[in-house]
Amino acid sequence: MDRREGHQRGCSRRTVRFLEPALLLLLHHGPAHGYTLLERLDSLGLGKFNPAVVYRTLREMEDRGWVVSAWDREQAQGPPRRVYRLTLLGDEVLRLWAQDLEETRRIVEEFLRAYYQHIEAHPMEMEA
Amino acid sequence: MDRREGHQRGCSRRTVRFLEPALLLLLHHGPAHGYTLLERLDSLGLGKFNPAVVYRTLREMEDRGWVVSAWDREQAQGPPRRVYRLTLLGDEVLRLWAQDLEETRRIVEEFLRAYYQHIEAHPMEMEA
DNA sequence: CCATACTATTTGCAATTTGTCAATAGTAAA
DNA sequence: TTTACTATTGACAAATTGCAAATAGTATGG
User: Fold this and answer.
1) Verdict on whether the full-model pTM lies above 0.85
2) Which of chain D's bases lie under 7 Å from a protein CB?
3) What is the pLDDT of residues A54-79, one digit of tens each?
4) CA of B79 to C1' of D28 (A)
């Protein structure tokens, strides 16, 4: 058995898959810095992310027009920070993402149902 | 808006993510040919897969010891077919996959809950 | 018997995605 | 002025994926 989630990866495949919608959702609460978002991803139940991955994703989202960014005027502590803000398009994409996750939920539930149903009926029947 | 699921991809990211557990589950029902599995993936609610992707995945699973294969003695129609069979290790991995999907379900549900709760309270508040 | 079509599997390669690490850059404190 | 901490970026290797074509057997029609 090898490469199970989180063993040799920075973060699991699943986690990465949730990065975009999670960022959109966090930004739906209001504008925020990349660094802040990085920390808040945790509070959404996703784990620690590699900063580079999060920043890169934000830039890609900006390229697609889902968010816009600007340098923060009042620098608190540290170097200039970029503030990201959701666009109308980003809001729409978040809505699409929610639909997509509904579908994902449906598939996961169907899979688990099929799994439990089958192993209940056939506890184990194959040779090693 | 671009690269939403299934637009420019053969199959969605999500679908690919379910390929391994789906194959393990199908094989838990009993040995089967790659081609048969390819067709049955549909019946699990996942869409059409590129054959090369499925065959390749089966080989990788064999490398990891989750399945074993042998050439089918009685060739029905067409070229020799490889029969895949789940191993005890594969059975265990399927169990782990189910646990992983339980966790995925939890995350998806939490995300959707947070999403609906928030957009209900804040229908729309950011500038374009 | 030759061409065509269908079942099955494999191989190779280009394109995309991901992970990692180091670089840059500002402020604050020792 | 060195060290530590906050933020962000860039570059590159490694892994993953999609696609197209090769291989190969059997069946069918002309």
Assistant:
1) yes
2) 5-11, 16-21, 23-27
3) 999 999 999 999 999 999 877 667 77
4) 17
Flag the least confident range among A13-22, A79-88, A119-128.
A119-128
Q: Which residues, in sequence order, are bridge partners of residue A32?
A: A84
Cβ-defined contact of B4 to A91 (cutoff 8 Å): no
Q: Which of the four CATH numbers 3.40.50.720, 1.10.10.10, 3.40.50.300, 3.40.50.1980 does domain A13-121 have?
A: 1.10.10.10
Contacting residues for A57 by C-beta, under 8 A, at least 6 apart: A19, A20, A23
Task: Convert the pLDDT of each residue in B49-62 to its tens digit.
Answer: 999 999 999 999 99
Q: Among candidates B53, B56, B61, B55, which has minimal Cα distance to B15?
A: B53
The predicted model gives A91-114 an average pLDDT of 95
| Residue A102 backbone phi and psi in degrees, to 5 | -65, -45
